[in-house]
């Protein structure tokens, strides 16, 4: 997370007029009657994304395989009503705080803030009505970019401060980049991410256990039985969490390792190896049958690797596909879970006069080897 001091010029640039909806179409209406639109982005080179104004959801993301055949590689729904059901947060912007906050509370400036308990005793992904369940305003759009904004008011879901948030999706040269920006008028905590579920063989095309994964992380944050980090930064050496060289996702996913058992597979934050402050490669995933390769680059210090352990076949997604257990993986770039209660973790506090600014890019290529 990068904080920069605001200037009069930067504040002026925040006011952007609404653009024509030439690349949009209706997607549905909320139960309150509010219209929801879909915006299509293309890089002109075979990669295309559709973004919903509801939750900023990446509804589809198509990329070519090694033969040039395009396929949709993210889970989701054809019908807007699918997104009104309870989680799993398919493709959505997650906030104010991505991942978990232990015991649904934290203390800031001597004040304890109580949050909603929507994950056992914890808060998950911003509470009962997080950023994934809201309609975002379209500030501007083009064939390859869309800027969304939302004002989260002081006290919303228990968090302090009026938080003005902007999320920009840009699709160019086989890469979907997400830029997150926010300011506040009161000390607060923030941790934004995107919750896309990927299957590089194509959404609904079986499990992801054969995908080859590399994660550039020497350490991860072990969890307790409620999936809250213990505070330890543990070496991946000699554990099923060592993805410093490529491994099949399913190679060690049923290990008797205590952390694998607690997560029912992988549901852990990795401490990324970083050399600077810009975009750096965090992970690479290759699917052998299609040759599709996904590289994840980020400015963030952490990344949650989740293997769709809670998917159980009860959800019918796009094209009538059924989403079974481990039929997708998530690579959620982030600050660490429960950081507001872990002073030794990188800070997630945002102060008035500073700007929260992070970026993540999903880059698609292919591997020619079969």
Question: Could you describe the 3D structure shown?
Answer:
Strands 1, 12, 13, 14, 15, 18, 21, 23, 24 and 30 form a ten-stranded antiparallel β-sheet that branches. Helix content is 3%, strand content 39%. The chain is mostly beta strands and 370 residues long.
* Number of E strands: 30
Main sheet specs? 10 strands, antiparallel
This entry's quaternary arrangement is single chain
Give unreliable regions as ranges.
5-21
User: Could you say which structural class the secondary elements and strand pairing correspond to?
Assistant: mainly beta
- Which value, in Å, is the CA radius of gyration? 19 Å
**What is the tally of helical segments?**
2
Global outline: globular
Give the overall pLDDT as a whole number: 94
Give the helix proportion (percent range): under 10%
Distance between the termini: 39 Å
**Percentage of residues in DSSP E strands:** 35-45%
